[in-house]
């Protein structure tokens, strides 16, 4: 096994001048049943031109985090604490008008389901042109030229004709391409892609993923790529953040996190999914139980009720104390570094064959 | 589009014919003989038979129905009261007047009432609904929704006399409720109808407030609205362009039904304020078992509702390109 | 053609599970066209969605057959046709020697209990107003089956079997998580001791960590109770894990069918190649990725006007004139193992190894990659 302590590309501190820096982010929603702690103390950094993958299951807080970055939560229902700094500008305290200038311009978002994420009432061309006209002060004609250029770039055949079509006249894959074109209209520095291929077929997904990667090369945007699919993330990310119950449980360079994971939850994710070349006689090892309720998350480490290695940690540490997530390559787990390594090599790796 | 309208019109005609059949049968199923009513106290079997003959109800039901249908399209001249050009609904048993000209005569009142009230409740209702949605969760929202709740549970026959008592008899702020033909005197047309408009639209406006608010809030949670926000479009732009467009569908649907049925006669309002519209006519027709009049009013109201149904469906195509292009 | 299909699957060395000698279900030329109405002024049938068009398939006793393909390929419709939730337009379904293609409700009754279905969405496929006990019991009540020891005892046994607490007999579906609800769905399917279960995307609505729980449960059910499965899914790795034999579908047709090893390691149909190549696998090192790279262009065509001849030809890099005029039959191509059938005029080599050169049909992708290479 390679040494796991190698310094990764993952950021170390907030003031390292990262392009996007999130510090101790907390997002809570008031509901009739109580307060949902959707995100609970999340920190990460993202450099220009790099891709951060955020992996987690439903309810892990990955989508909420990114809507918070864009400032799309209604302050009436959500309480947001912490710090989000984009290129030197604090976003949580920013005024709505300031955020509007950034959205679609400096930071753009690609949503999961392009059918519901594009308005059925306006043409694709109009929906693409709008942000360009607003942010760049372009005329209708200039915006149309730009939109056609972008539609061509993402591979929409006959872009001049399709400019005047409505989203429902596009196929699923084409719609997601149009969505990508829309996000790239103003050449954003930060692109947030929230499960952009989950609603697509596998052959189309492969096209879109490669397209996104190639476009990133050309545009140089930083990408936050959110998904539940470890296979997809391994194709896209430079760095990886694994989220569970609103918290980051493991962080590091993608290759290290997936190649030598240190958190029992990451181990569980990897050994619960079959691969195309895995041994078919090797039964899958699921994570027992189900994800916790965010209304009433478990005390201490939120993963402890489902963790198979709790007994390796002395005392009641797992149930009382929330393990911190260190800087850089780190896992929020009470197991010692040595334990993590031996358990992975002895017990987990053989399952991944 | 033309094909669509043609097909829907054809369908509407079929429905009207079926409706006529049902009304005809129901009428003759009634245990009451209209001739008996006209015959008076000193009725003899001969006189009764005579009336039967003049009314044309001595013939078999299918035969009567056929004659009626014929009259609708080509007119009839077998009436004692005089000729009856198409569309002929016959002469009223009760007043002996031509039903069609009675309808035409009463129509302006009903149209004035309906259109005026519709203007009022659309603007007030949608306006306050949008405001409540925009200010969702604030005191304004709560006041508007609360007020709408109270008002929509009001009744015209309660609000009407109350408004009259207060605004007309006590403070003399408004004129007596009275219908004057618009072409004769627009000013008194207006002043005479202000109170019925206000009363009728209050209840409707309250419903439209609630509907507009809830459908806007629903639309604001749509993903495509969120996408528009994520592109940096301003809150008001997203509100009025993206969310409003989607809210139009339910609003137009309900509005079509409401205006259609109002044009068929606002029975309670007309009765409350003593306005001689189609609604009053309908009540009279039932009261006097006046078959020709009843059929006339009913078919007319049904035609209005069907007409606005078609208009609503055509509106969908303008609002939603998915309807237009499929 | 169907004779070939009824042959027991030749098991590869990796597939040690015993071959199933006896055929439980045979499907021949199964077709389902959903009519489209339109026209003026009288509405009439103006076309049809050719959801399933001439599918041949067989399932042996206790065998698990996987159906894979992308949306619109007809895999779910096929499942619904087999359970007779839909009425086939044409073709023949034979279950245990009995033709059930157009069997009436009464004729179907004994068969219905032997063929059960598990649905994708564990939230909408359970009646929220019924307790778990009632839900699992109802198939027995409908079919008038009184197991030894009573229905309630049987339900409790089933709950235990699928890994739920039998004490939860009187709880309602909303009190359970997604994975647990899918277990309830499995228990309901098992209530009548079925011989064949059609599982339509049974895990795709579940979280990754929960998927494995349900896959393992289904595998246990298959092994211990000897139930045959038609496993419908779009996730190729899960299908491979679960199924001994796999049929790959494209636009209503089976384009390739064979044992697990043949389909995943020795595929012949270009579509199977493309599909496998598109699966995102966790590969840490780029060097580790020795798989061929194929990127198709565009989406699947509409099943209302499918392409003539071979339906895949519009997205195929090997297509020639012949493909447009002649529909390729589903046959055993030379070099294929027994039972491995491919419907292609110009099959690929039986390997998924990197071919040295990528096949990138997507014009935008190709353009961007050309620019990057320069």
How would you explain this protein's 3D organization?
The complex is a heterotrimer of chains A (353), B (326) and C (374). Chain A is an alpha/beta fold. In chain A, 34% of the residues lie in helices and 20% in strands. Chain A has a domain of 229 residues: Rossmann fold. A 7-stranded mixed β-sheet of chain A has the order 6-7-8-3-9-10-11, with helices on both faces. In chain A, strands 2-1-4-5 form a 4-stranded antiparallel β-sheet, with helices on one face. With 326 residues, chain B is mostly helical. In chain B, 75% of the residues lie in helices and 0% in strands. Chain B contains 14 helices and no strands. Chain C has a single domain, classed as P-loop containing nucleotide triphosphate hydrolases (Rossmann fold, 3-Layer(aba) Sandwich), CATH 3.40.50.300. Chain C contains 12 helices and 13 strands. In chain C, the strands form 3 sheets. Chain C has a 7-stranded mixed β-sheet, sandwiched between helices. Chain C has a 4-stranded antiparallel β-sheet with strand order 2-1-4-5. In chain C, strand 7, helix 7 and strand 8 form a beta-alpha-beta unit. The N terminus of chain C is likely disordered. Chains A and C meet through helix 7, helix 8, helix 9, helix 10 and helix 11 of A and helix 6, helix 7, helix 8, helix 10 and helix 12 of C.
Tally of contiguous helical segments of chain B = 14
Query: Separation of termini of chain A?
Result: 15 Å
* CA-based gyration radius of chain B: 24 Å
How much of the sequence lies in strands of chain A comes to 15-25%
Radius of gyration of chain A from CA coordinates? 21 Å
Principal-axes geometry of chain B comes out as globular
Order of helices and strands of chain B: HHHHHHHHHHHHHH
Biggest interface goes to: A-C, 56 and 53 residues
Total strands of chain B: the figure is: 0
General shape of chain A: globular
Instruction: Report the CATH architecture of the domain at 1-7 and 18-106 and 221-353 in chain A.
Output: 3-Layer(aba) Sandwich
CATH topology term of the largest domain in chain B: MetI-like fold
CATH class designation of the largest domain in chain B = Mainly Alpha
CATH topology of the domain at 1-7 and 18-106 and 221-353 in chain A: the name is Rossmann fold
* Tally of strands of chain A: 11
What CATH architecture label of the largest domain in chain B applies? Orthogonal Bundle
Quaternary status of these chains? heterotrimer
Q: Kindly name the structural category of chain A.
A: alpha/beta
Question: Can you identify the CATH superfamily of the domain at 1-7 and 18-106 and 221-353 in chain A?
Answer: P-loop containing nucleotide triphosphate hydrolases
- Report the total helices of chain A: 13
